[in-house]
Amino acid sequence: MFNTSNPNNYKYLTKHLEIHILGGIKTNKLESLRVTLSVQKLKSTNILRHSIDLYNDNQVEKFVRRIAERLEIGTSITRKTLQELTHELENYRFLLLDKQAEANQPKYKQLNASEEKTAINFLKKGKLLTRTNEYIGKSGVIGEDINRLLMYLIFTSRKTNNPLHCISLGSSGVGKTHLQSKVAELIPEEDKVEITVLSANAFYYFNRTELQHKLILIEDLDGAESVLYPLRELQSKKRITKTVVHKDSKGTTKTIHLTVEGPVSVAGCTTQESIYEDNSNRSFLLYIDESTEQDKRIMNYQRRASAGKLNEQEEYLAAELLRDVQRVLKPIKVINPYAEYLELPQSVFKPRRTNSHYLQFIEAITFYKQYQKEKKYHKDTGEEYIETSIEDIIEANELIQEVLLRKSDTITGAARNYLENLKAYLYQQEQTSYTSSEIRRNLRIKETTLRRYQKQLQAEGYIRKIKAEKGKSYHYEIVDVEEYKTLKEQIHSALSTCITKLSATSTP
Questions:
Q1: CB neighbours of 344 closer than 8 A, spacing ≥ 6?
Q2: Which of 107, 156, 211, 481 has the fewest CB atoms within 10 Å, i.e. is most exposed?
Q3: How far is CA 172 from the centre of its chain?
Q4: Residue 52 in 3-state DSSP?
Q5: How many domains does the chain have?
Q6: What is the pTM of this model?
Q7: Is 378 among the domain residues?
């Protein structure tokens, strides 16, 4: 009888011997079976304890003789008992390995007919993006109306051949990681990989296709600096390869290639936009809402949660529906017949990469609306595809304006937020100039942070220093109060003009 109910003390009982396997068995080295045994005759207090590798024949034979001598039992009985025990432990170890493999498998949810029908009906109805945004809010994502929908669509693009990526930016403690994790909860578990800390070479040891069409979530880019290079390669080239030296069982040195295939969608959070410029260039930059109105919304939600007044069932059902929606989306090619007519505003920096992101975002919206599209087939290859509509482009333009605005700015997002807050303060006070101490006091900004912002704004020509009266502090003034508003209008006008031209064109 072989009893494994106690994982640290298996029991093996025969007509003659009682054997305990102390500490269980290890599953990491299949070439050996090292165990610690406690052996005794039935109804005897004479116990023999010994650590042994049951795959080592010399050790087993010596142990057989020691048992026979110490417990006064025949060697043939002892040898047969150890052979049978070895067979039982061997089978049980394989069983444990199967259980471990099963436990490590991502949990795939198989939708039943009702769940699948509900998800498809959700995707078929009109105003899909508006309804999706409402359900994201119902799932517990507070405020951030544009950012949360952008992020959800970016995460959805992981299923396409050209996934998008995003980086959430903002001050410490404003909820970057919270927003990312809450929206990521709307993506099925089997489709995402979450990273806190990872060594430099870890990415190369995933299985070849393990990351394909996955969402990779990085809690803080500061804690994952070592993997940013392979991540960039995955984003750009959609595969990474590393050549390593390996010795085989005969001692022969060989070089082997470790290849991991993409594409992947990558999302991360940071407070330091300028440090991760290479990664930022490949990503949508989502600036977290740091307004007092958003503070109030979040704190009100926290109070309601603490008071037990949240409808947790409604939040769960909304999130579960959006996860099911993700599961019913199928890979399909997207063709944008209007792509040649689309132009970015002249003010956008790095227009080549931004233009690519813009077109991919339109494709992501079309892909998400696949159940509202007529399926077409390429006349030469027979490949199935769906087409982008003008409505998709209009929706993309509405969502992407803030992204393009930030991509057109010459200063960092943090400096821009400071400058806009400064403009609002000066407008309220009905004044045109200010001192550093005044702003530090009224906008509650640390001296080192303020100095950094002032230096950047002066260098870029957004503010200038005014000569102070003798014995008084230096004053500053804003060069052009309307510059950001003008830039916003230019981008809106350029996108609107583009849509007007498309609408006037009967055939693409």
A1: 351, 354, 355, 358, 404, 494
A2: 107
A3: 19
A4: strand
A5: 3
A6: 0.77
A7: no
Residue 380 confidence (pLDDT): 83
Look over the chain and give the mean of its residue pLDDT values, rounded to a whole number: 86
Provide the β-strand partners of residue 244. Answer: 256
Domain contains 395:
no
127 and 90 housed in the same domain: no
- Hey, which residues does 266 pair with through a beta bridge? 216
Residue 27 CA to residue 294 CA, distance in Å, equals 51
Pick from 157, 196, 191: which is nearest to 177 by CA? 196
Amino acid at 259: T
Q: State the CATH number of the domain containing residue 462.
A: 1.10.10.10
* Token pair for 57: 């024949």
pLDDT tens for 377-403 read 988 888 899 999 999 999 999 998 888
Q: Are strands 384-387 and 433-434 parallel, antiparallel or unpaired?
A: unpaired
pLDDT tens, position by position, 243-287: 877 766 666 788 888 888 889 998 888 877 665 566 667 888 888
Claim to verify: residue 92 and residue 127 sit in the same structural domain: no
Residue 410, CA atoms < 13 Å, CB-side half-sphere: 11
Label each residue of 153-169 as H, E or C: HHHHHHHCCCCCCEEEE
What pLDDT shows up at residue 273?
65
Return d(Cα 463, Cα 202) in angstroms, integer.
46
Phi, psi (rounded to 5 degrees) for 315: -60, -45
- Residues belonging to the chain: 508
The reply to whether 100 and 27 lie within a common domain is: yes
62 shares a domain with 148: no
> Which residue stretches of the chain have pLDDT < 50?
508
Q: Running DSSP on this structure, what letter comes out for residue 337?
A: T
**Full domain range(s) for residue 205:** 115-331
Residues 175, 204, single domain; the answer is: yes
The residue with tokens 């078929």 is 124
Q: Give the Cα-Cα-Cα angle 221, 147, 360 (nearest 5 degrees).
A: 85
CA terminus-to-terminus distance, the chain: 77
Judge if the upstream peptide bond of residue 7 is cis by omega within 30 degrees of 0: no
Contact 409, 273 (CB under 8 A): no
Q: Residue 508: its pLDDT value, please?
A: 46
Report DSSP letters for 341-376, one per residue.
Answer: G----TT-SSHHHHHHHHHHHHHHHHHHTGGGS--E
